[in-house]
Every structure is written in C-alpha cells, then in structure tokens.
TrEMBL record:
The record marks 84 as: Lowers pKa of active site Tyr. Keywords: Oxidoreductase. GO terms for molecular function: oxidoreductase activity. CDD domains: AKR_AKR5G1-3. This is Aldo/keto reductase.
C-alpha cells in the first residue's frame, strides 16, 4: 500500500500503527530552531518525530512536542515518537537506564518506538533483552534496530523472543539496499530510511531533476515518493518551515514503473554514513 496522506500509517507486525512520514532531527542543536522545527512539523500535519540520545537534543524535542501538541489541539497519543539507545549504553541494565533517561529528557511517559542505534558486536543482544523487557512491561509500544544488516538481524533473531518491528537504515538512490529490503519484507520488519536525501548530495542529480521536472516537483519530493512507493518509511530532516511543508507534499503524484526503475539504477552502494560492519564510535 502507498501512503495517500501525511497521517497515513503502516501497521507494524505487533499491530502498532507507525506513520509513513516523519521529521528527523539528526544534528539539530538544542535551542529555539529545534523547538520550532518540531512545532512546525506538528502544525503542518506530521505525526512522527525521530530523535536519539546521541543527538543530544531530546530536551528540545520534548519541548517542541509539548508546545506543538498544545497548539495543534491534539494529544500525545496522536504522535509517534522514536528515540535510540547509544553504543556506550548497550548492556541490559544500562539500556534500561538509557531508556529512562531519554524519557526524562523528552518529558514523556513512554516512547512509541525505541531502537538499538548500531549493531555493536557482542553488545546488541544484551541490549535487545532490555528492549524486550521494556516492551513486555508495556513501557514502550514497539522496539527495533537501526543500521542492522542481514547477518546482524539473523544473529539477533536466533535468540530473540520478540522480533524487531523496525530496521532504520541509511537508504537513498545511491544506496538502495535491495537485499536488506527484501529480507525485512520477508520477516515482517518495517524498513525505515534515514538520510533519504543523502544529506543533500542528490539534489542536483540530472536524472532525478529530469523526473522531478516532469511531475512539477522537487528532486527531494521525487526521492521521498520513491521510498514511499516501495513501502519504506521516511524521516527527512529540516528546520525550515517551507522545506518541512515541501518535503511532505508528496501525496499528489505517482512515479511510473519505469521512473522507479531508473531511480533504482542510480545505486552505487555508496554510503554517506558509517559502514555497519566497520564502524568505530
């Protein structure tokens, strides 16, 4: 199914509804710009906000959420909030403590989704047990992972009691991760794209510009539409109101099969972020 509006959701394998489209706040510093970005997104219909402990901006995100909910006249239950446990906290007790610290900074009583940020070898299984505990106790609505490759997922699921609901990974036309996408689909794990616009590096691509011109859209809108039509959740980052609005204006056109294949053909297995099999944080 392809999302038809900004509030449309996909049902995760545990029945929780996750919006197809959200706001990412990677590297947005604490302060008025961050608070306003979150408020602006909520005002314009966004119902998903994605942050992480390592972004060091959960306090501002929380403030933006509280003010945004009030101004929009909606409740906490109308919003889907994600955060992630950082590598240095990957352990059973330390992951639970990290979750509680994130909640406190955000000023929330629960998260809709909590993710293991990176597959640190020898550590992610203990962290996953902690996430399972939080989930079973009803303290978090959904649990998942980020930056996990197929072999990480296979290894985790060998011992897991609860299967990850989401895998958030770097994904854009230069890094399509088709095998990983197929694996996640096969196992009922929702794929979510971070850095869908390749940190802006694709915005002057001639092929994408040609497709965009044909539809009267921006390159960013074409890329986000490409993700959505493949059943991938997107969380583009922006702090500017016109861009927050423009990014979400992707529900009034459709890419053809040929256009989708043309975009797929741009793949070079090129990352702008670290390699999950070889990273050092």
């Amino acid at each position: 199914m392809t999302a038809s509006n900004l509030k449309d959701t996909t049902a995760l394998h545990n029945g929780v509804n996750m919006p197809w489209f959200g706001l990412g706040v990677f590297k947005v510093e604490e302060g008025p710009e961050l608070v306003n970005a979150v408020k602006t997104a909520i005002k314009h219909g966004y119902r998903s906000i994605d942050t992480a402990a390592i972004y060091e901006n959960e306090t501002g995100v929380g403030q933006g959420i509280q003010e945004g909910l009030k101004e929009a006249g909606i409740t906490r239950e109308d919003l889907f909030v994600t955060s992630k446990v950082w590598n240095s906290d990957l352990g059973y007790e330390s992951t639970i403590a990290a979750y509680e610290a994130s909640l406190e900074r955000l000023g929330l009583e629960y998260l809709d989704l909590y993710l293991i940020h990176w597959p640190v070898e020898g550590k992610y299984k203990d962290a996953w047990r902690a996430l399972e505990t939080l989930y079973k106790e009803g303290r978090v609505k959904s649990i998942g992972v980020s930056n996990f490759q197929i072999h990480h997922l296979e290894d985790l699921m060998k011992d897991a009691e609860v299967k990850p609901m989401v895998n958030q990974v770097e994904r854009h036309p230069r890094l399509t991760q088709k095998e990983l996408q197929a694996f996640c689909q096969e196992h009922g794990i929702q794929l979510e794209a971070w850095s869908p616009l390749m940190q802006g590096q694709l915005l002057d691509n001639d092929v994408l510009q040609g497709i965009a011109d044909k539809h009267g859209k921006s390159v960013a809108q074409v890329i986000l539409r490409w993700d959505l039509q493949q059943g991938v959740v997107v969380i583009p980052k922006s702090t500017k109101e016109h861009r927050i609005v423009e990014n979400a204006d992707v529900f009034d056109f459709e890419l053809s099969k040929e256009e989708m294949e043309t975009i797929d053909g741009l793949n070079q297995d090129h990352r702008v972020g670290p390699d999950p099999d070889n990273f050092d944080f």
